[in-house]
Amino acid sequence: MNGLNNRSVIEKPLESLNRLIAAFINTAKPFPLDGKHTEARLKDKKVGFEVFIVTKGRVDIWREVDNRLVETAFAPTILGLQGSVYRSQYYHLQFPAGSEVRTLPLQTAIEIIEQQSLWRDVFYYQGYLNDRQLHHESMLINSSTYETVCLFLKELAHYTDSERAKLSVADYILQRSNLARSGVMKVLADLRFGGYIEIHHGKLIKILNNFPKNY
């Protein structure tokens, strides 16, 4: 279980991201959100590919084939610059209440990027997104239930207090993995009993100590 307690943090390239948002924001239109969760797709049947700019809150990315939550991205973030037909067919976005989102057509975004010579920023930001995808996949490949739970706990610990207060620890892990509920609950109970994590009403308060190598 090498690197369980000391995995590298993937830094969001905020300078590049903020330049892209500043270039797009005046052209982008507000995306209407209704209800507790609003769903959207990267390719609209009427307008084609769209770029989504999240300036407040978060967006959850769901894979439809197995109804798995594969990524949660917090503001500021941009999705849709790849214009991928595959992703538009197999993934959908979900915005919780309180988020602020704007959209613009992908072709318009490409024209702005070209006009303002922002391709370097696009490459930096897409590299970050690729690293995030690899990070998630590596958490699930050849990992035991214990290892996977610990890695998701460390990921959840990086959320703000207000965001963690909205999320059930067990649901957070189960929605992002194919683990059995019974196995997840046992590992959480053992880590809590051993004094490694603090959980209150099913919400992660903090990680108290490094997780043991052997379970």
Number of strands: 11
pLDDT averaged over residues:
89
**Number of helical stretches of at least 4 residues:** 8
Distance between the termini: 10 Å
Spatial shape: elongated
Give the percentage of residues in beta strands. Answer: 25-35%
Sheet with the most strands?
5 strands, antiparallel
Radius of gyration: 19 Å
Report helical residue fraction: 40-55%
Uncertain regions: pLDDT < 50 for 5+ in a row? none
What is the H/E order?
A: HEEEEEEEHEEHHHHHHEE
Indicate the structural class. Answer: alpha+beta
Can you walk through the features of this model?
By secondary structure, this protein is of the alpha+beta class. It has eight helices and eleven strands. Strands 1, 3, 4, 7 and 9 form a five-stranded antiparallel β-sheet that branches. Strand 10 and strand 11 form a beta hairpin. Helix 1 crosses helix 4. The chain is elongated and about 55 Å long.
Task: Spell out the blueprint of helices and strands.
Elements: H1 14-24, E1 29-30, E2 37-40, E3 43-44, E4 48-56, E5 58-63, E6 68-74, E7 77-79, H2 85-90, E8 91-96, E9 100-105, H3 106-115, H4 119-140, H5 145-157, H6 161-164, H7 169-175, H8 181-193, E10 197-200, E11 203-207
Antiparallel strand pairs: 1-9, 2-8, 3-4, 4-7, 4-9, 5-6, 5-8, 10-11
